[in-house]
User: Fold DUF1972 domain-containing protein from Actinomadura gamaensis.
Amino acid sequence: MRIAMIGTRGVPARYGGFETAVEEIGRRLAAAGHEVTVYCRGERHPEGTYLGMRLVHLPAVERKVAETLSHTSLSVAHAAGRRLTGRGPDAALVFNAANAPLLPVLRALRVPVATHVDGLEWKRTKWSGAGRRYYLAVERLAVRWSDALIADAIGIRDYYRDKFGAESVFIPYGAPILESPDTAKLAEAGYKPGEFHLVVARFEPENHVHLAIEGYRRSAARRPLVVVGSAPYADEYTARLRELAGDDPRITFLGGVWDQDLLDALYAGALTYVHGHSVGGTNPSLLRAMGAGASVLAYDVNFNREVLGEDAGRFFGDPASLAREIELAEADPGLAADRGREARKRASERYVWDDVARHYERLCEDLAARRLTRRTVRPKR
Assistant:
């Protein structure tokens, strides 16, 4: 099949969950013999292909409100042009419900399309007023114009079923399983295994980095807190985080860490990984931490409980409860390590990229064969 993957920053994956999913799924689909085209924006990979995937680089308006839709508009136009010449996709995978207004173009050209709807974007604080109303509207459009919806978490599947009466194909993300972390990388960065707490997140309020810092500062922790992350449109929130940290010598901001070996070593070497994400589905950062055997302290929402279960992590809802969990981990590092091993075991059994890619392959086969249509989504009348 010819498969187009549209709506993300593309590959190599350097930004977030969608990009990681495109890289892991796309490379496996290509290895299985399919022609995979990934539409990319941002930093240009020097080659026209990457891990067997064909790359198409197109520009975007570099503004928060227009970046995604402007790039996807060009991507859809490019795919449409190839379709008119007989070389277009047999199926399109569109990531992010925000791109739903462009789905009629693909449908007009008889390109069957599945939309990965992502999390509850309208709950993100960076969207307010018109932005929030837009995301609420495009959820309905994704239901109306997609041949299939993809939900990466049961909580997201249930949301679309309850709100729209719409069925989704449930396909979670996979987890990279790390058996032998590069401890030399950790030493180069100045850290020792089990001797620090870790936060990895984009600096957005719904990821609760502020709560992680507040909870840590309330604790009597002796081991430092390492904060990894940044955000392109969050200067005010970033300033708030640094203000919360104050002059506490125990807290270090590393910024964005693009060295993937170092990032893996940080996950694997942390005494605890504090995960504050609250509005997404199956979060790739959480899966990566689990795959590295990190002892997870997660914000208490249904998405995180779904991924961790009852034994592979601990949960917090406010600074006081997080402070207690941090102190308990320092008091009993062995128990924290046991939870990390349970987390790795759960990730290796439930979140396997090879299985994920096979689900996507079957989905694309069903799309190309017209076994999935808008009628299979079944929106409410």
